[in-house]
Amino acid sequence: MNFRNTWRACSSLFRIRMAEGLQYRVSAISGTMVGVFWALIECVLFTVFYTYSENGSWNNNGLSLPQAISYVWLAQGLFVLQSMNIDSEIMSKINNGDVGIELCRPMNLYTHWFVKSSAGKLGTSWIRGLATVLAGLLMPAGYALGGPASLPALFYFLLSAVMAFVLCSAFAMLVTAIRLNITWGDGPTYMLLLLSGILSGTYLPLRLWPDFMQTFLYLQPFGGFADIPLQLYIGSVAPAAALPGIGLQLLWSLIFIAAGRMIMKRRLHSIIVQGG
Amino acid sequence: MLAEGKIYCKYLRMHLLSGMEYKGWWLMLIQVLTVVISDPIATVLLFSRFGNIGEWTVAHIILVYSLAVASFGLAESVCRGFDYFPWHLLRSGDFDRLLLRPRSLFVQVAASRFHLHRLVRPFTGICAAGWALGQLGVPLTPGRLGILAMALAGGCLMYCGVFVLTSGLAFFTIKGLDWIFLLTNASYQITRCPEPYLPRMLKSVFSFVLPMLFISFYPAATVCGWGYPRWLGFLSLPSGAAFLGVSLLVWRIGVRHYKSTGS
What average pLDDT does range B230-235 have in this prediction? Predict the structure, then answer.
């Protein structure tokens, strides 16, 4: 099995899943509505806290209100990259025993599923993400998504967002590899995904977390899902500090991919195919 | 009516027993507990960084929030079937079988699912409300307990109404109902913001379209005496019932419109 064949198989898998995802346009509209509503509530909440609370005007750790609002909108846009659960097609394959068929293909299972799940995510979600961001740009002044801090900031944001996509996919595959052990049920993987969501900054910008946690929050892997690209965009992290951040994303992606491959390899040695 | 109630209880018992057959059923309890606890983290962290908003402390917000969450959880527990209806009963065509049985459709659909772990949410919510009342120094008199119980009952009716409304609309759209998330999990997020600071539009939507504030904020205000008219706190039950009534109407029209789907 040479590299070129793998590449061709991957790109066609990617295209198939993208086209499949694009079929569900109505669900993209629904998703956008939810995202916009969510972002609006967050905007209201931040406005209230920044304007009326006791320490709002000074104790914000260098994140101003317009920055926080831009952060909220872009976080809703990038949120689509994170998976709330394991790719449903792969999940059903694990549950009904089609894993056996997948193993017969002359292709590494990890690579195959990686491409499939990442394409599945991208297919439905990029419209939703873009639409949410667009809605953010069109909001009335107080609640609108602002422009990037500078031109380099925009460039690094885009670069970092691409990295975030790789990182999210790698993490989703790690979770899938763990889930291959069917007897555990959904509990552990679900909690892992929830934890990653909370620590990614989509719930609350990581800068607004307690001060003593900041170093930990910077180094932990899930900040790369959303927080690093977003901070680059709004300028609370200077473009000069962009490369270390993106390097961190890259490092964690590599770690997740290596761990995922290893766990999957070990699982496949002793896999019990369920169903029939 | 009594017979229907009996059937409902039998259904629930059946689901409960079948759920217990899975060895890891208690894992789900922990899972839901994690979700419920992690949900208000953002609010608590915001308060810890920014301090109080005027006289609004974290206990005020938790009280209102937990009332909303607990009533959502209650509705989820007793009306779980409607929550699943568009996805599992309607699209597969299994609904036809229910229509053939000479029993109340509402009871059959409502009791078509029951998960024990859904009770974690109301339980945690009620505990949190108790904690918040303790923090605020509000002693629990029978009168106050009555108002809170009415708020929970009204909220439960309202969220049951949301589920019934989704199911009713599902007859017309079959798919693409993700926006209903706005009325369920997203709706109680507005209770994280103190009511006086809410923009007027959000306030009217969540009092008159979905009576969210009537089942969470106003009862809390009446119980703690936050200077709102007292009678507002008693509107929880009627407003929840009214919402459920409208939803049932939509459901009725939907059932009449239904011409079987699936295979």
Answer: 90
